[in-house]
User: Which sequence fits this backbone?
């Protein structure tokens, strides 16, 4: 008896998880878990920085932390294609063709049993006393105890992670002599910082625009930096009519309604992210979406590292003319 396999004609019939599995040549089926691989967009990626994750809308998406690229499966294929595909329709047509060829030549019924994998959450932490190590680490960036206290940064001795797995509570306790908690003014923890760890340097606890609690909104200019450390370093430059905030990360865009509200409070806003590919890509997104100009500080990788590697005076001398140009040509950043 002859049998045929039905070919599909609509992109909605192509399983999104198959797109990731096939084009990324994943070694495992996607059934609800998150997967981290080396970036397909960055050949110099030495440690896995591209995350394929099961999103809240029950579909897979990706985020590449080394380049700042992110989106759904179709976005990814558009970015990966050589020569580049320019429209989602053109990309969908390619995916349909490839999927039809796959189902004709492979025994895959496409059946998946999805189960959203639970993730660890921070449920407890212990604040410790400041040490000589802490002083040496933060002083490299000219960040002292008063500034750390102002931005609610505190040293931690440990924190507890917890998740539910197969009906049981699984816990992990992380201990270290060099990690820090970032807190809001209400005392809630929003991020944990491991400065000496390459992977999982930051543990996100809750959504928060860093430095938002400290804004006065009584100065004309706002700088959007890449991290809280950069925000604190910026405050040390001594500008009297500019203050700074930072999103959760360069790859997490501040929401449109927040940017709109900030535009009503400040005469000028610009971004100042890392000068690596991910930082440049993120600044371009802010420019495209919110029409915010950006400043590229071509010293060290980011603002705080530039302060560490040179001097506050040198960074200020380099940065001031660029800020003047981007924020408002007829205005002057206060000396």
Assistant:
């Amino acid at each position: 008896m002859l049998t045929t396999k039905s070919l599909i004609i609509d992109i909605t019939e192509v399983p999104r998880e198959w797109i990731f599995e096939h084009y990324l040549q994943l070694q495992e089926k996607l059934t609800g878990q998150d997967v981290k691989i080396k970036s397909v967009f960055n050949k110099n990626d030495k440690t896995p920085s591209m995350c394929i994750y099961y999103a809240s809308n029950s579909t897979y998406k990706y985020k590449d932390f080394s380049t700042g690229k992110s989106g759904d499966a179709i976005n990814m294929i558009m970015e990966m294609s050589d020569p580049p595909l320019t429209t989602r329709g053109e990309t969908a047509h390619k995916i349909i063709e490839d999927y039809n060829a796959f189902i004709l030549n492979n025994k895959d019924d496409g059946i998946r049993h999805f189960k959203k994998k639970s993730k660890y959450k921070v449920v407890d932490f212990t604040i410790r006393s400041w040490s000589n190590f802490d002083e040496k680490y933060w002083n490299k960036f000219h960040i002292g105890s008063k500034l750390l206290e102002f931005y609610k940064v505190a040293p931690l001795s440990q924190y507890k992670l917890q998740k539910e797995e197969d009906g049981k509570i699984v816990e992990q306790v992380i201990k270290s002599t060099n990690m820090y908690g970032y807190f809001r003014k209400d005392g809630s923890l929003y991020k944990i910082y491991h400065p000496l760890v390459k992977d999982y340097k930051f543990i996100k606890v809750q959504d928060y625009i860093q430095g938002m609690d400290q804004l006065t909104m009584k100065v004309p200019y706002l700088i959007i930096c890449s991290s809280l450390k950069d925000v604190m370093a910026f405050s040390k430059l001594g500008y009297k009519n500019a203050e700074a905030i930072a999103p959760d990360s360069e790859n997490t865009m501040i929401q449109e309604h927040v940017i709109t509200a900030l535009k009503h409070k400040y005469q000028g806003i610009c971004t100042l992210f890392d000068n690596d590919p991910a930082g440049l890509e993120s600044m371009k997104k802010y420019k495209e979406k919110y029409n915010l100009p950006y400043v590229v500080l071509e010293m060290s990788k980011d603002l705080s590292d530039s302060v560490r590697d040179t001097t506050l005076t040198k960074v200020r001398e380099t940065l001031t003319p660029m800020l003047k140009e981007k924020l408002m040509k007829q205005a002057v950043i206060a000396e």
In short: The mean pLDDT is 87. The chain has three domains: 11-105, 118-208, 209-335. Residues 118-208 form one domain. The longest strand covers residues 168-183.
